[in-house]
Amino acid sequence: MIHRTIKISDTKILIWELTETWEELLKQFDKNEIDSVEFSTFHTDKRKKEYLSVRLALKTLLNRKIKICYNDDGKPFLSDYFAEIGISHSGQWIAVITHPTQKVGIDVERFQSKILAISERFLSQEELEKILEDKEEKLKKLTLLWSAKEALFKVIGKEAVDFSRQLLIFPFEMGKSGKMKALHIPRKKLYELNYELTEEYALVYLIDNMEQNIL
Questions:
Q1: 3-101 and 107-207 share one CATH topology?
Q2: Is the dihedral of CA 38, 39, 43, 47 positive or negative?
Q3: What fold, for 107-207?
Q4: Nearest to 23 by CA among 1, 40, 48
């Protein structure tokens, strides 16, 4: 595994550039750790690698065997509720996050030019005017904004499915790393997000502090 970890208080994050084959990944598990019936339903190498890599990443981060389940919103959780988890993958990049008690969200996105054509689908007019007024590095900033809203959605769920109307990112100065403020409009709840930019991807993550201010 070629990866790096981030630790902030009780939060743990692992980012991994996936270079292994699914056969190599499978060797890292005991037979009873992988649902063979579920695994047999994956017919592409890409899907097999995603399935195995996120489980190996969480197993490495938590230093224990894990089993992932999903709720009705599609949010992953551990079968024994040992910790709150978040999962993301984009191309060869895998990112996972854990916290003992608080909901967490994470999203990693490769830079792809196709995002330039869909900005109006996930950004409000206010965001388009205020955040994107600086045209330099537009691709990176759009990718970062998409990643932020994906991470928020993973924490909030179905009440944040309409990115342009239900989630608002406040203007910020973009650097290699930093923080953003966001508002979940229906509940008037503020969130703080952390981000990192590399030459390969944008990464955004957040911890849902239930005591955050309500506007």
A1: yes
A2: positive
A3: Ribosomal Protein L22; Chain A (3.90.470)
A4: 48
Q: What is the pTM of this model?
A: 0.94
pLDDT tens profile 68-122: 999 988 899 999 999 999 999 999 999 999 999 999 999 999 999 999 999 999 9
Domain ranges of the chain: 3-101, 107-207
Q: How many C-beta atoms lie closer than 10 Å to residue 139's C-beta?
A: 13
* Mean pLDDT value across the chain: 93
**Residue among 115, 123, 151, 109 nearest 132 (CA):** 123
Distances (CA, A) of 49 to 20, 23, 44, 111: 8, 9, 9, 21
